Amino acid sequence: MAVKVKSREILQHIAAYPLGKSLQDIQSELGIVNIRNMSEIENVFGCSPSVKKQLMQRLDHLFTYPDGSARALSSKLADFLGVAQNQLFIGNGSDEIIRLLIRAFLNTTEEAIMADITFPRYKTNVSIEGGTPVIVPLKGGVHDLTAMLATITEKTKMIFVCNPNNPTGTIVNKDDLISFIEEVPEHILIVLDEAYYEYATSEEYLQSIPLLEKHANLVILRTFSKVYGLAGLRIGYGIMDSSILAELNKVKEVFNVNQLGQAAAMEAIMDQEFRKDCILRNERGRAYLEAELEKLGYTYFPTNANFMMIHIGKDGNEITQQLLAKGIMVKSGAVLGYPNSIRVTICSMEDNRYFIETLKNL
C-alpha cells in the first residue's frame, strides 16, 4: 500500500546522495575477488596503530553516553592548532557542521554562494533549509573568486569555498584568497572547507588559521576522515569565532559525536609521524601518476589532495566500467560535472602502477 503522507515540497526537487553499489555487491556481480578501490578518496594507508589500541581499551565503556561537548578532544586539538578551545566545534564529520551552519544562519529569503562543481552537500543543505543556492562556474577547475564577489547581493548570507576543491583537487592562490576574504562584507559567513588541508603541500596554499583573529566571519572546516584515516568514525571540526560556535550549539544534537570517534581523534593527534608518512606516500604516488599520465598523453587538474581528476577524452562512464572489469574502481566524471573524465584516489604504489598499466591496455 502506498504511503499517502507527502514529504516537504522542496524534497521533490532533491535527489539522494549517490552512494553507488557496495564493494561486496560489485565483487559478487563481476565474480572478481580482488578489487582495488580507487574511488572513495579515503586514506588507503589506514589509521595510526595506536588508534586501534585506544579503541580496544574503550570497548568496556560503550554503555555510557559520549561527552556532548567533546571537551577532552577540543582541549587537545586546541593545543595542537594553537587556537582557543572555545573556537573549536566538533562535529559528526565536517558535513554535519556544514548542515548546522546553514540551519543556524540561513533564512529562507537568503542566498548562499558556491561553485558549480564542488562538494554537493552545500547546495543540497541550502535547498533543504529553504535558502537559495547561487552557483558560480569554476574557471579551469578552480574557484572563480572574482565572479563570486560579483555575485554578492543584499540577500547573500554565506559563501562556500572548498580548498582544495572536491572533485578537482585544485587550490586557490593564497594571495587571491586573502584578498577575497578581505573584500567579503563582514556580515557574510565565509565557510572555508579544508577537508584535504594536510595533503596541500604547495607554497601557494593559504594557511588560514591566522586570519581568524581579523575576520570573525571566517569559518574553517577540517576533518579526521582523510589523512588521519578515520572516515568510518565520522569526526570533523570547525575553527571559528566563539559567537558562531554558540549558535551552532543551539541547533546540534546533544550527543552528536560518538565516544569511540572522540577517543580515536585524540589518539590520532598524538601520532604525527603517521600523519607525515601518509602525506609523504601520497606525494610520491601523486608524482608517479602525474609523470605516467603525461607519458600517455592524458591531462589532469593539478591536485593538492589525495585524488586526481584525469581527463580521458572519452565517456567517463564507459572508461569506469572498463576499469571495473579489470578490478579497479574509480569515480566517473559524468556524475561529478566532467563527463569525459574520471576521478582516481592516489593509493599505494602497487595500486597506482596497476592502474597505469591497465589504462595503457584499455
UniProtKB/TrEMBL annotation:
One Pfam short name: Aminotran_1_2
Pathway where this protein functions: Amino-acid biosynthesis; L-histidine biosynthesis; L-histidine from 5-phospho-alpha-D-ribose 1-diphosphate: step 7/9
Catalytic activity: L-histidinol phosphate + 2-oxoglutarate = 3-(imidazol-4-yl)-2-oxopropyl phosphate + L-glutamate
Cofactor(s) needed: pyridoxal 5'-phosphate
Chain segments annotated as transmembrane: none
Record-listed E.C. numbers: 2.6.1.9
The name this protein goes by in its record: Histidinol-phosphate aminotransferase
Species of the source: Sutcliffiella horikoshii
